[in-house]
TrEMBL record:
One Pfam match: LSM
Coiled coil: none
CDD domains: LSm6
Name this protein carries in UniProt: U6 snRNA-associated Sm-like protein LSm6
The protein's role, per its UniProt record: Component of LSm protein complexes, which are involved in RNA processing and may function in a chaperone-like manner, facilitating the efficient association of RNA processing factors with their substrates. Component of the cytoplasmic LSM1-LSM7 complex, which is thought to be involved in mRNA degradation by activating the decapping step in the 5'-to-3' mRNA decay pathway. Component of the nuclear LSM2-LSM8 complex, which is involved in splicing of nuclear mRNAs.
Keyword terms, alphabetized: Cytoplasm, mRNA processing, mRNA splicing, Nucleus, Ribonucleoprotein, RNA-binding, rRNA processing, Spliceosome, tRNA processing
Assembly: Component of the heptameric LSM1-LSM7 complex, which consists of LSM1, LSM2, LSM3, LSM4, LSM5, LSM6 and LSM7. Component of the heptameric LSM2-LSM8 complex, which consists of LSM2, LSM3, LSM4, LSM5, LSM6, LSM7 and LSM8. The LSm subunits form a seven-membered ring structure with a doughnut shape.
SUPFAM superfamilies: Sm-like ribonucleoproteins
Domain of life assignment: Eukaryota
Record GO terms (molecular function): RNA binding
PROSITE patterns recorded: SM
């Protein structure tokens, strides 16, 4: 019996599973924001806590809270810490 690939969930399931966890948010401009996903809405507007900004892989700024407009978001990934 071979191992079966992990079952793919819906994007909505993924987003619900990472609320309160560390995520990386990549913007269309290529800038990354890493922090704790506080909340998001149906337009993909995002609120992050303990946010760190990375430009070209280099740390640029630290923010307490950051709010990102959804139309700027390219993707969101979970960060294992």
């Amino acid at each position: 019996m071979s191992a079966s690939p992990p079952k793919a969930g819906s994007p909505n399931d993924f987003l619900k599973s990472v609320i309160g966890k560390n995520v990386n948010v990549r913007l269309n401009s290529g800038i990354d924001y890493q922090g704790v996903l506080s909340c998001l809405d149906g337009y993909m507007n995002i609120a992050l806590e303990q946010t760190v900004e990375y430009v070209d892989g280099q740390k640029k700024n630290e923010y307490g809270d950051a709010f990102i407009r959804g139309n700027n978001v390219m993707y969101i990934t979970a960060i294992e810490k």
